[in-house]
Amino acid sequence: MTSRQKRISPAVGSFAGLGVLVVVLPILALLVRVPWTTLAAELSSPESVLALRVSLVTSLAAAMFSVALGVPVAWLLARGPQSVTALIRPVVMAPIVLPPTVAGLSLLALLGRNGVLGRFIYDATGYAMPFTMIAVILAGVFVGMPFLIMVLETAFVQLDPEIEQAAETDGAHAGQIFWQVSVPQVRHALGTGAALAWARALGEFGATLTFAGSFPGVTRTLPQQVYVALESNLSNAYALSGLLLVISIVMMAILRGNLRNPFVTPQA
Amino acid sequence: MMKKLILAGALVVGLTACGTSGQANSGSQTESITVMAASSLTGTLTQLATQYEADHPNTKIVLNFAASSTLAQQINAGAPAQVFVSASKKSMDAAAERVKSPAIFLSNYVVLAVPAKAMYDPCFSVHPCLESMTANVMDQENFDWIQCAHEVPCGAAADKATKADGVTSKPVSLEPDVKSVVAKIVAGEADGAIIYHTDVIAHSTLKELAFTATKDATTTYSIGEIDAGNLLAEDFISFVKGSEGSKVFEAAGFTVLK
Hints:
The structure holds two protein chains of two kinds. Chain A is mainly alpha-helical. Chain A folds into two domains: 1-33; 39-260, Orthogonal Bundle (MetI-like fold), CATH 1.10.3720.10. Chain A is 78% helix and 0% strand. In chain A, helix 2 (10-33) crosses helix 14 (234-260), helix 6 (100-111) runs parallel beside helix 12 and helix 11 runs antiparallel to helix 14 (234-260). Mean pLDDT of chain B is 84; it is low at 9-27 and 123-129. Chain B has twelve helices and ten strands. In chain B, strands 1, 2, 3, 4, 5, 6, 7, 8, 9 and 10 form a ten-stranded mixed sheet that branches. Chain A binds chain B through residues 10, 13-14, 17-18, 21, 108, 112-114, 126, 128, 130-131, 209, 213-216, 218-220, 224, 227-228, 230-232, and chain B through 3-5, 7-8, 11-12, 67, 69-70, 73, 142, 144, 146, 149-152, 171-176, 180, 184, 187-190.
């Protein structure tokens, strides 16, 4: 441990210190402003409870859909023909770096009442997705699933093909190999990916607002409630921010090992 | 450890110093002020700022538009701006610590905006033309309407207007500012939206139904200098309040208050 510390030069050390401060100081300042004495009351106010419920339901649903659809996509990217995956990969990963408002606008362009697809649905059935909880969930899948795909593709690529070959020799068909041999081996990465997808969906703001709007109990998520509370009830905004911050830090603490090495094969 | 901290501190101070001197240099060339203004003034103030810059070489009017309540927050948090134009008295009052003598200079009112092609010409379809027409339209089944959040001026005005007109249905979304509401109704994502009369004037694809309770639907705009003492800010404020400003505001549908 000591020998490692000595290898950090003063220059690197000072920049590292600055870098840490850039992140740590705002977080500390936020913690200072969180109204700890009235925290319970702030978090159980009607608006907070509604936003908490919307956020929990939609982010968990988004994580589930991300797993259900993202695992097969990651498999396709890991094992599919290069010519196909090279085309698909940059597109399905794009939401990771896409500005959330643009993500929301894309969804609106497709599924809005006047959307490329949405207009036909609306004309035929009178159904429009914006302003519904489904829209919040879809926005969450759109921005969150790429994280799961990214982690899981890496994990699938790292798998030892001999294990799958052995299963094939024993007569397992492709579906069995996927579900019973490959997926169990990447369960750590799956956990990490699902957690990242969930957290990304939980924190989503721009795409949700652009595509789903903001109504208490239906589409107003925690981050949106924080933004609205900024106007009227600052201590509520800080209380909810504190909650989101704690969730983020706890999650990163739990995921640390997995994030460093997402493709670890499970202990036998 | 101490050494490292000192080095880090020196770096921070150095960087800050660079920033300040840079600003001072550019200031001697072009004078610049930042104006924080209500979203509903986006079109008019942009036009006036461009006009002012053309009339006064070497000046730069930087505009920042958001919900007045958001801007008041930012001003209280020390935002480096020189002029605040608020869409409500409440938000102007909220910034009273830095904006000492604001003047009320415009009024506007919220209306129910519907797509221009929609068939809600109330006095056509329902006889006689009832007083609470907006309620008739908004309380129809499957009429999805949106408004600003209760916390921002356009939302507060919408709440008062719908209450006074006896609207019983609820909006499907409470957007964080009027820009966001306008964008959604213009995109056709809702059947109706409570926005400002001036927003409807600015969009030919929209038409409006007025609320009966016009007094409740009205909001007044005030303008004031943040932290007194900036000559350019004061000159720009008189320009906006003067005859050139009035012309632009009236053309956009505002009522200019003398």
